[in-house]
Design a protein that fits this description.
Blueprint: H1 4-32, H2 37-65, H3 67-85, H4 91-101, H5 119-128, H6 132-155, H7 159-165, H8 170-192, H9 215-234, H10 237-248, H11 252-265, H12 267-280, H13 282-299, H14 306-333, H15 340-365, H16 372-392, H17 398-406
Length: about 400
C-alpha cells in the first residue's frame, strides 16, 4: 500500500496550502467586516463546535466505513464552506462555513496541517502504508510536505492587500480567497479518490503484535494530555494573527511573509525528527522539544518589535516540529490498528472541545490584557508536557521494542 503515500502527500499539500492563507486572513477579514475581538473569539469558538461534530463523526464511522471515504466527505464539506464564506459575512454563515471549511483547524504556521477532523482518517492510512521502523520517518515527511505547501499558501495572504491597492474593496478581496479555497477542496477530493484501503474492521487480530496498552486506556491518557494542549492552542490559532495585528499593527502582508518564513524554517526539522526519536525515544523526544517550544513562546510577550516576536514564534514552531512526528507516530504505533481512527478521533476530541473555550476567553481578556493569549497558551502547554511524560514514559512503541530486542 506504499503507493498510497503519494496521494496522501498530495492531499496534505493541498490542505496545508489552503489552511495557511485562511488562518492568516480569516480573523483579519472579520475585523475588516466590523467584528470586535470578543466577537472574533466567539466566532472561532462556535465554529469549533462544528469541527467537534465532524471529528466525532470520523471517530464513529471511519474505522468501519473507511478512512478514504471520510477524507472525501470532509473535503466536500470544506468545499461547501469555502463557497459560503465567499458569499456572505453574516454571523451564522461565517460560523458554519468556517467550521466546515476548516479555518484555523490546521495547527497554524509550521504545523503542516496536522490538525482538525481529517486528521484521524489520514493518520491510520499513513501508518498502514509503511513498516513500524519507517513510520516516524513517513510522519515527518508528510509534515515536511505540509509546511512547504503552507509556505507557498502563506504568500497568498498578501493578495487582499494587493487587490485593495488596485481598487478592490477589502471584503471582496477576501471573498476571492475563500472561493479559491473551495477550488482547492475539489482538488483534495481528486487526490483522495485513488487511495486503496483495506477495511480496518476486516483485519485479523493475529496480523499485529498485541498493543502495549488497551484502546480505552490509550484514548483516555491521550485525551487528557490533548485537552490541556487544546486549551493552550485555543489561545493561539487564528487569534494569534489578531494579537500580532493589535500588538504591532501587522497587516496581512507582514503576517503572510512571517508565516512563509516559519513554514520554510520548520520544514527541515520534520525530516530530522525520526533521528531524534530514534536516539531519545519517542516520549523523551516529544517532552524535550515541547519544553523548548514553550520557552520561546513565553518570551514573545516581552519583546517590543514585530519581527523580534516573529523570530521567537519561529523558534517555537521549529522546536515543536522536531517532536510532532514522533508524537503522532507514537499514538498510531501503540494502538490497535483496527481502531486507529477511533483512537485518533476520540483522543483528540477533548482538545477540540477545550480549544473552543480558549478563543472566547482570550478574545475578551485581550480587551484589558493584550498579551493574555500568549500567557494562557504557555501555561496550558506546559501542563500538557508534564501530563504527557507521566502518562507515557513507560509505554514503548513496536519499533523501540524491536530495537531493544536486537541490541
Amino acid at each position: 500500500m506504499s503507493q498510497n503515500l503519494r496521494w496522501l502527500y498530495a492531499n496534505r499539500a493541498l490542505r496545508s496550502f489552503a489552511t495557511a492563507f485562511l488562518t492568516v486572513v480569516f480573523p483579519l477579514y472579520l475585523a475588516m467586516s466590523g467584528y470586535s475581538a470578543a466577537r472574533i473569539g466567539l466566532v472561532l469558538t462556535l465554529s469549533g463546535v462544528v469541527s467537534v461534530v465532524l471529528l466525532a463523526g470520523v471517530g464513529i464511522f471511519a474505522d468501519s466505513m473507511g478512512r478514504k471515504r471520510a477524507i472525501i466527505g470532509l473535503s466536500i464539506l470544506s468545499l461547501l464552506g469555502g463557497v459560503a464564506m465567499a458569499t456572505s459575512a453574516a454571523f451564522w454563515v461565517v460560523v458554519l462555513s468556517s467550521g466546515l471549511g476548516g479555518v484555523g483547524k490546521g495547527g497554524g504556521a509550521g504545523s503542516g496541517g496536522s490538525w482538525g477532523p481529517l486528521f484521524p482518517a489520514e493518520q491510520p492510512l499513513l501508518a498502514e502504508a509503511v513498516s513500524d521502523e519507517n513510520r516516524t520517518k513517513v510522519f515527518g515527511r508528510i509534515s515536511f510536505v505540509g509546511v512547504v505547501a503552507g509556505a507557498f499558501g502563506s504568500l497568498v495572504a498578501v493578495v487582499p492587500e494587493w487587490l485593495h491597492g488596485h481598487g478592490w474593496t477589502w471584503v471582496a478581496s477576501y471573498h476571492l480567497l475563500f472561493g479559491f479555497s473551495a477550488i482547492l477542496s475539489l482538488l483534495m477530493i481528486a487526490t483522495a479518490w485513488p487511495i486503496h484501503e483495506e477495511r480496518p474492521n476486516m483485519m485479523a487480530v493475529s496480523e499485529q503484535e498485541p498493543p502495549p496498552i488497551s484502546v480505552k486506556r490509550l484514548t483516555g491518557r491521550l485525551g487528557l494530555t490533548n485537552a490541556l494542549n487544546g486549551l493552550g492552542f485555543g489561545f493561539l490559532g487564528p487569534l494569534l494573527t489578531y494579537w500580532f495585528y493589535r500588538r504591532y499593527g501587522a497587516g496581512p502582508a507582514e503576517l503572510g511573509a512571517l508565516y512563509t518564513i516559519i513554514n520554510l524554517a520548520t520544514a527541515l526539522p520534520y525530516l530530522l525528527a525520526s533521528g531524534i526519536a530514534r536516539r531519545l525515544g519517542a516520549v523523551k523526544a516529544v517532552t524535550v522539544t515541547r519544553i523548548l517550544s514553550i520557552a520561546a513562546l513565553l518570551l514573545m510577550a516581552f519583546v517590543p518589535k514585530f519581527w523580534e516576536a516573529g523570530f521567537l514564534y519561529l523558534l517555537r514552531m521549529v522546536f515543536n516540529s522536531f517532536g510532532m512526528p514522533a508524537r503522532q507516530s507514537f499514538a498510531m504505533g501503540v494502538s490497535d490498528r483496527r481502531y486507529r481512527s477511533r483512537v485518533a478521533a476520540f483522543s483528540n476530541l477533548p482538545s477540540q472541545l477545550t480549544s473552543m473555550i480558549s478563543p472566547v476567553i482570550g478574545g475578551n481578556a485581550m480587551e484589558s490584557v493584550l498579551d493574555f493569549p500568549v500567557y494562557g497558551a504557555a501555561f496550558f502547554m506546559a501542563l500538557n508536557v508534564i501530563a504527557y511524560y507521566l502518562a507515557f514514559r513507560n509505554i514503548t512503541p513496536p519499533e523501540e521494542r524491536h530495537l531493544r530486542r536486537s541490541s
